[in-house]
Amino acid sequence: MPRADPAGDIGDEEFRALLTRPGLRIERIVSHGHVSADWYDQDRDEWVLLVEGGARLSLEGEGEIVLGPGDHLLIPAHVRHRVTWTDPARRTIWLAIHFD
Amino acid sequence: MPRADPAGDIGDEEFRALLTRPGLRIERIVSHGHVSADWYDQDRDEWVLLVEGGARLSLEGEGEIVLGPGDHLLIPAHVRHRVTWTDPARRTIWLAIHFD
Fold it and tell me: What Pfam families does UniProt report for this protein, alphabetically (chains A, B) (predicted)?
Protein backbone atom coordinates (compact mmCIF):
# COMPACT_ATOMS: atom_id res chain seq x y z
CA MET A 1 0.00 0.00 0.00
CA PRO A 2 1.15 3.54 -0.53
CA ARG A 3 2.26 5.74 2.28
CA ALA A 4 -0.63 7.47 3.91
CA ASP A 5 -0.58 10.53 6.06
CA PRO A 6 -1.52 10.17 9.68
CA ALA A 7 -4.77 11.96 10.44
CA GLY A 8 -4.67 14.19 13.47
CA ASP A 9 -3.42 12.62 16.68
CA ILE A 10 -3.82 8.96 15.81
CA GLY A 11 -0.11 8.53 15.34
CA ASP A 12 1.85 7.27 12.38
CA GLU A 13 0.95 4.33 10.27
CA GLU A 14 3.52 1.58 10.66
CA PHE A 15 5.43 0.36 7.61
CA ARG A 16 7.86 -2.50 7.87
CA ALA A 17 9.69 -4.23 5.04
CA LEU A 18 9.65 -7.96 5.76
CA LEU A 19 11.62 -9.00 2.70
CA THR A 20 13.45 -6.98 0.05
CA ARG A 21 14.86 -8.58 -3.06
CA PRO A 22 15.57 -7.29 -6.54
CA GLY A 23 12.14 -7.00 -8.10
CA LEU A 24 10.26 -7.94 -4.93
CA ARG A 25 9.36 -6.20 -1.69
CA ILE A 26 7.06 -7.63 0.97
CA GLU A 27 5.76 -5.02 3.38
CA ARG A 28 3.58 -5.09 6.47
CA ILE A 29 1.45 -2.05 7.19
CA VAL A 30 -0.58 -1.32 10.30
CA SER A 31 -3.28 1.33 9.91
CA HIS A 32 -5.58 2.66 12.58
CA GLY A 33 -8.07 5.02 11.02
CA HIS A 34 -5.51 6.23 8.48
CA VAL A 35 -6.46 7.19 4.96
CA SER A 36 -4.46 8.27 1.92
CA ALA A 37 -3.83 11.98 1.65
CA ASP A 38 -3.83 11.79 -2.13
CA TRP A 39 -4.03 9.41 -5.10
CA TYR A 40 -1.10 7.09 -5.64
CA ASP A 41 0.37 6.12 -8.97
CA GLN A 42 3.02 3.42 -8.72
CA ASP A 43 5.57 2.14 -11.20
CA ARG A 44 5.23 -1.46 -10.08
CA ASP A 45 2.37 -3.89 -9.65
CA GLU A 46 1.20 -4.32 -6.07
CA TRP A 47 -0.67 -7.23 -4.58
CA VAL A 48 -2.43 -6.50 -1.32
CA LEU A 49 -3.87 -8.82 1.33
CA LEU A 50 -5.95 -7.49 4.18
CA VAL A 51 -4.89 -9.70 7.09
CA GLU A 52 -6.84 -8.15 9.95
CA GLY A 53 -9.26 -5.26 10.43
CA GLY A 54 -11.22 -3.47 7.74
CA ALA A 55 -10.63 -0.91 5.00
CA ARG A 56 -11.99 0.69 1.88
CA LEU A 57 -9.91 1.32 -1.19
CA SER A 58 -10.73 3.37 -4.25
CA LEU A 59 -9.36 2.49 -7.66
CA GLU A 60 -9.76 5.22 -10.19
CA GLY A 61 -12.66 4.47 -12.50
CA GLU A 62 -13.74 1.44 -10.49
CA GLY A 63 -15.27 2.98 -7.38
CA GLU A 64 -14.75 1.86 -3.83
CA ILE A 65 -13.83 -1.66 -2.72
CA VAL A 66 -14.59 -2.86 0.80
CA LEU A 67 -11.90 -5.12 2.24
CA GLY A 68 -12.20 -7.51 5.17
CA PRO A 69 -9.83 -10.17 6.52
CA GLY A 70 -8.61 -12.49 3.79
CA ASP A 71 -9.57 -10.17 0.94
CA HIS A 72 -6.87 -9.47 -1.59
CA LEU A 73 -6.48 -7.63 -4.83
CA LEU A 74 -3.97 -6.75 -7.49
CA ILE A 75 -3.32 -3.09 -8.16
CA PRO A 76 -1.59 -2.95 -11.53
CA ALA A 77 1.16 -0.40 -12.04
CA HIS A 78 -0.17 3.07 -12.79
CA VAL A 79 -3.72 2.32 -11.70
CA ARG A 80 -4.36 5.27 -9.44
CA HIS A 81 -5.73 4.33 -6.03
CA ARG A 82 -6.22 5.56 -2.50
CA VAL A 83 -7.27 4.23 0.86
CA THR A 84 -10.50 6.02 1.75
CA TRP A 85 -11.16 4.40 5.13
CA THR A 86 -9.57 2.14 7.71
CA ASP A 87 -11.36 1.13 10.87
CA PRO A 88 -10.69 3.73 13.57
CA ALA A 89 -11.71 1.31 16.33
CA ARG A 90 -9.04 -1.33 15.78
CA ARG A 91 -5.86 -1.93 13.89
CA THR A 92 -5.88 -2.96 10.27
CA ILE A 93 -2.97 -5.10 9.09
CA TRP A 94 -2.07 -5.21 5.41
CA LEU A 95 0.44 -7.30 3.58
CA ALA A 96 1.62 -5.55 0.44
CA ILE A 97 3.77 -7.23 -2.17
CA HIS A 98 5.44 -4.98 -4.73
CA PHE A 99 6.92 -6.72 -7.72
CA ASP A 100 8.25 -6.11 -11.20
CA MET B 1 4.59 -24.35 1.77
CA PRO B 2 5.00 -27.76 0.24
CA ARG B 3 2.14 -30.12 -0.37
CA ALA B 4 1.37 -32.19 2.69
CA ASP B 5 -0.50 -35.43 2.85
CA PRO B 6 -3.81 -35.45 4.61
CA ALA B 7 -3.65 -37.52 7.78
CA GLY B 8 -6.46 -40.00 8.15
CA ASP B 9 -9.97 -38.65 7.75
CA ILE B 10 -9.29 -34.95 8.24
CA GLY B 11 -9.70 -34.24 4.55
CA ASP B 12 -7.35 -32.59 2.14
CA GLU B 13 -5.32 -29.53 2.79
CA GLU B 14 -6.49 -26.65 0.63
CA PHE B 15 -4.07 -25.02 -1.79
CA ARG B 16 -5.09 -22.03 -3.84
CA ALA B 17 -2.89 -19.92 -6.09
CA LEU B 18 -3.85 -16.28 -5.57
CA LEU B 19 -1.40 -14.83 -8.06
CA THR B 20 0.88 -16.47 -10.59
CA ARG B 21 3.48 -14.51 -12.52
CA PRO B 22 6.79 -15.42 -14.09
CA GLY B 23 9.11 -15.82 -11.13
CA LEU B 24 6.39 -15.30 -8.52
CA ARG B 25 3.59 -17.38 -7.09
CA ILE B 26 1.41 -16.35 -4.15
CA GLU B 27 -0.44 -19.25 -2.58
CA ARG B 28 -2.95 -19.63 0.22
CA ILE B 29 -2.92 -22.86 2.18
CA VAL B 30 -5.43 -24.00 4.78
CA SER B 31 -4.25 -26.78 7.09
CA HIS B 32 -6.21 -28.50 9.81
CA GLY B 33 -3.95 -30.89 11.66
CA HIS B 34 -2.00 -31.68 8.50
CA VAL B 35 1.71 -32.39 8.58
CA SER B 36 4.27 -33.03 5.85
CA ALA B 37 4.66 -36.65 4.86
CA ASP B 38 8.32 -36.14 4.03
CA TRP B 39 11.07 -33.53 3.78
CA TYR B 40 10.76 -30.95 1.02
CA ASP B 41 13.60 -29.60 -1.06
CA GLN B 42 12.55 -26.76 -3.34
CA ASP B 43 14.28 -25.09 -6.26
CA ARG B 44 13.00 -21.63 -5.36
CA ASP B 45 13.07 -19.46 -2.27
CA GLU B 46 9.84 -19.43 -0.32
CA TRP B 47 8.59 -16.79 2.10
CA VAL B 48 5.88 -17.93 4.47
CA LEU B 49 3.48 -15.96 6.66
CA LEU B 50 1.28 -17.69 9.20
CA VAL B 51 -1.95 -15.68 9.01
CA GLU B 52 -4.16 -17.62 11.40
CA GLY B 53 -3.86 -20.70 13.61
CA GLY B 54 -0.67 -22.38 14.73
CA ALA B 55 2.04 -24.63 13.33
CA ARG B 56 5.48 -26.03 13.83
CA LEU B 57 8.03 -26.24 11.08
CA SER B 58 11.35 -28.06 11.02
CA LEU B 59 14.26 -26.78 8.99
CA GLU B 60 17.04 -29.30 8.57
CA GLY B 61 19.89 -28.56 10.95
CA GLU B 62 17.95 -25.80 12.72
CA GLY B 63 15.39 -27.73 14.75
CA GLU B 64 11.75 -26.88 15.14
CA ILE B 65 10.22 -23.42 14.79
CA VAL B 66 6.88 -22.59 16.42
CA LEU B 67 4.70 -20.28 14.33
CA GLY B 68 1.76 -18.18 15.50
CA PRO B 69 -0.30 -15.50 13.72
CA GLY B 70 1.91 -12.88 12.12
CA ASP B 71 5.07 -14.99 12.23
CA HIS B 72 6.96 -15.28 8.99
CA LEU B 73 10.15 -16.78 7.72
CA LEU B 74 12.22 -17.24 4.61
CA ILE B 75 12.97 -20.77 3.51
CA PRO B 76 15.88 -20.49 1.07
CA ALA B 77 15.92 -22.78 -1.95
CA HIS B 78 17.20 -26.26 -1.12
CA VAL B 79 16.90 -25.85 2.63
CA ARG B 80 15.06 -29.03 3.50
CA HIS B 81 12.01 -28.52 5.67
CA ARG B 82 8.77 -30.08 6.81
CA VAL B 83 5.65 -29.12 8.70
CA THR B 84 5.66 -31.20 11.88
CA TRP B 85 2.41 -29.95 13.40
CA THR B 86 -0.61 -27.82 12.64
CA ASP B 87 -3.33 -27.23 15.18
CA PRO B 88 -5.93 -30.02 14.90
CA ALA B 89 -8.57 -27.93 16.71
CA ARG B 90 -8.83 -25.07 14.22
CA ARG B 91 -7.77 -24.09 10.77
CA THR B 92 -4.32 -22.74 10.07
CA ILE B 93 -3.98 -20.30 7.18
CA TRP B 94 -0.63 -19.80 5.48
CA LEU B 95 0.41 -17.37 2.83
CA ALA B 96 3.32 -18.75 0.83
CA ILE B 97 5.25 -16.71 -1.68
CA HIS B 98 7.51 -18.58 -4.07
CA PHE B 99 9.94 -16.48 -6.03
CA ASP B 100 13.08 -16.71 -8.14
Answer: Cupin_2 (PF07883)
Q: Residue B6 forms beta bridges with which residues?
A: none
* Beta-carbon separation of B26 and A97 below 8 A: yes
B15-31 tens-digit pLDDT = 999 999 999 999 999 99
Using alpha carbons, select from A9, A99, A90, A7 the residue that is nearest to residue A50: A90
Give the domain ranges of chain A: 15-99
Chain B residues within 8 A (CB-CB) of chain A?
A: 18-19, 21, 23-24, 26, 47, 49, 51, 70, 72, 74, 93, 95, 97, 99
CATH number at B15-99: 2.60.120.10
> How far apart are the CA of A51 and the nearest CA of chain B, in angstroms?
7
**Tens digit of pLDDT for each residue in A41-95?**
999 999 999 999 999 999 998 999 999 999 999 999 999 999 999 999 999 999 9
**Whole-structure pTM value:** 0.86
